[in-house]
Amino acid sequence: MMKSIKTICLVGATVFLTACGWHFKNNEMLPTELRTLTFESADQHSDMSRVLRNQLQLNDVKLVSNQDNVAKLRLVNASSGSKVVSVFKQAREAEKLLTLNVQAVVDVPNKGAYPLEVSVHRTFFDDSRAALAKSAEQEMIMKDMYEQAARQLIIKMTGLHQELHQTK
Hints:
Layout: H1 2-19, E1 36-41, H2 47-58, E2 62-63, E3 71-87, E4 93-108, E5 112-125, H3 131-158, H4 161-166
Parallel strand pairs: 1-2, 1-3
Antiparallel strand pairs: 3-4, 4-5
Helix pairs in contact: 2-3
């Protein structure tokens, strides 16, 4: 009897929360100064620029063209590299450590510039016998790393909340 009451309460709460349109408001953590941005990048069509722009829009950040009184997010650099971490008996590389380093600067009018830097690391098993499949897998891993780096940049922007309100 008690088990069925718990089940009914759980189902009822789930139906109530999904029916009323309730959802998490994660974007409210972003400082108000950073909810409208100008996005700048040396290469607007690079993978990192595209993914970062999409992540900003998913977090309800309004992207506008150049305006003087709006904060700017400038993507300074996105570099990737790989390092061999293990080898096969035949001295061929077996496993690589893929690294993505991203540097950006948030420039808030009348408050200053705040540098942001994130690093994402992943391991990749490289088998030369399946080169085409491994190439496609490595591209998928890199896309995932770009998305993770973009999410980390937005989290770091959220962390600027206290610094932006201290410099008033």
